[in-house]
Amino acid sequence: MKSFDIIVIGGGIAGASVAAHLAAERRVAILEMEERPGYHSTGRSAASFEPNYGPPAMLAFTRASEHFFRQPPKGFADAALISERDSIFLMPEGQEEAAERLLAKSDKLAEISIRATQEFFPVLRNNYAQRAFLDPNTGDLDVDLIHRGYLRLFKERGGSVLTSHQVKGLLYRSGQWQIATEHGIFTSPIVVNAAGAWGDVVAKLGGVKPVGLQPKRRSIGVIPVEHEEDAMNWPMVTDVGETWYCKPQSGKLMVSSADATPVDPHDAYADDMAIAEGIERLMTATTLEVERLEHSWGGLRSFVPDGNPVVGFAPGQEGFFWLVGQGGYGIQSSPALSETAATLILDKPLPVSVIAHGLELSDIAPRTT
Ligand SMILES: Cc1cc2nc3c(=O)[nH]c(=O)nc-3n(C[C@H](O)[C@H](O)[C@H](O)COP(=O)(O)OP(=O)(O)OC[C@H]3O[C@@H](n4cnc5c(N)ncnc54)[C@H](O)[C@@H]3O)c2cc1C
Questions:
Q1: For ligand 1, atom 12, which residue shows the shortest CA distance?
Q2: Taking CB atoms and a 6 Å cutoff, what residues make up the pocket around ligand 1?
Q3: What is the pTM of this model?
Q4: What is the pLDDT of residue 174?
Q5: Of 15, 38, 32, nearest to 154 (Cα)?
Q6: How does DSSP classify residue 42?
Q7: What's the number of CA atoms in the CB half-sphere (13 Å) around residue 263?
Q8: Where is 344: in which H helix or E strand?
Q9: Predicted pLDDT at 226
Q10: Positive or negative, the Cα torsion across 253, 258, 261, 265?
Q11: Between β-strands 310-313 and 214-224, what pairing exists: parallel, antiparallel or unpaired?
């Protein structure tokens, strides 16, 4: 038996970041079922930082994380974690209510004319959108750098990352969790469930009531844009109703129909039909003619019904801490979300920044189904 103070299940961005905080004060291990951490949702994101995107708790976490991305602690990474990229939200006819909802919760969003929008995004058709909104405060995140930064910090603080260690059983006895893997049994008084899409599966292993986590598949296609001068400087462009978006990345253009198909947790792959819809909507909105798809991928975004993340000890079960339900915002919120989770686990005061950005603890408290 190998004993730790805290065992984190899952080595994606959620597990890596919370473990890095916890390892400053406790003996911590991460148990990750795959050969490498980051294989699932963390390695499949669109890598955007958009502080006006998400439900209230996520807005608070994302806004409170901005400082970390722009000015990470010395030694965290050897390059910038965020690079500038504006976002533009387009409102075609029929999406008026979605535009009102976006404006109601947004900060620093500026309405611009369609002509001005075309200066940022020259392929936009004249008659596609009725209104356009510019968010100058967004950016591209270097997800791999952020994830590796947290894993390195964790190891420097004495933490152990154990890959190919799938948790197969969980039993709470005499104040200790016994955690079964193929490589033996681990024990700790506290487990952190950072298993992403598998959050409810892991809870059930330990007899803990699920929180109603629903993984939803999203597919992303990558198309060439070599004929478009300056395409790499285009903003991220999305419609306010979230039926498509596109974003330059590494010399190509990512496109998605923003699909959110409920699925069981699995090694996700792209849905060809969803990608075709995304391309069709892109061609309706722009003068781009897409002749081929270079590649595609799929990933899971996991939500509980109210859309907020679930962060806190399970009601009625000692020592079981939830850190799931980050939906489509788990990277951009990770610095503040992990710091908050660590303070709750260690019974410390919440970070001032999340309170300043309006976090309500009741929004993120685990509720069993
Ligand atoms: C297409 C797409 C686009 C996205 N775009 C963005 C974006 O632009 N910005 C943003 O902030 N977010 C985005 N997201 C969301 C973001 O990727 C997720 O919120 C985030 O990666 C979730 O991190 P996680 O650590 O909870 O999950 P994961 O990265 O999935 O990690 C969970 C880990 O738990 C492990 N695990 C599961 N069960 C067990 C077990 N029994 N034993 C041991 N290990 C286990 C898994 O192997 C996995 O590595 C996007 C997601 C997708 C799919």
A1: 329
A2: 9-15, 31-34, 37, 39-42, 44-48, 166-167, 194-198, 202, 218, 220, 299-301, 326-332
A3: 0.98
A4: 96
A5: 15
A6: G
A7: 19
A8: helix 334-345
A9: 87
A10: positive
A11: unpaired
The DSSP annotation for 271-334 comes to -HHHHHHHHHHHHHHBS-------EEEEEEEEE-TT---EEEEPTTSTTEEEEE--TT-TTTTH
Q: What is the DSSP string of 67-95?
A: HHHHSPPTTS-SS-SEEE--EEEEE-TT-
> Residue 299 C-alpha to ligand 1 middle, in angstroms?
8
- Indicate which atom in ligand 1 lies nearest the CA of residue 195: 34
13 C-alpha vs ligand 1 centroid, how far in Å?
7
Instruction: Pick left, alpha or beta for residue 346 (phi over 0 → left; psi -120 to 50 → alpha; otherwise beta).
Output: alpha
Give the residue carrying structure tokens 């603080």: 157
Q: Are 135 and 87 in contact (CB under 8 A)?
A: yes
Cβ–Cβ < 8 Å for 221, 293: yes
What is the block-wise mean pLDDT of the chain (369 residues), using blocks of 10 residues? 95 98 98 97 98 95 98 96 98 98 93 98 98 97 98 98 98 98 97 98 97 98 94 98 97 98 98 98 97 96 97 96 98 98 98 97 92
- Give, in order, the Cα–Cα distances in Å from 233 to each of 62, 110, 113, 248, 326: 24, 19, 19, 7, 29
Q: How far is CA 178 from CA 121, 188, 237, 300, 319, in A?
A: 55, 7, 48, 29, 12
- Cβ count within 10 A of residue 34: 17
* DSSP state letters, 106-165: -SS-EEE-HHHHHHHSTTB-TTT-SEEEEETT-EEE-HHHHHHHHHHHHHHTT-EEE-S-
Residue for token pair 């154990």: 162
Nearest protein Cα to ligand 1, atom 51 = 45
Q: What is the largest CA-CA distance in the chain?
A: 68
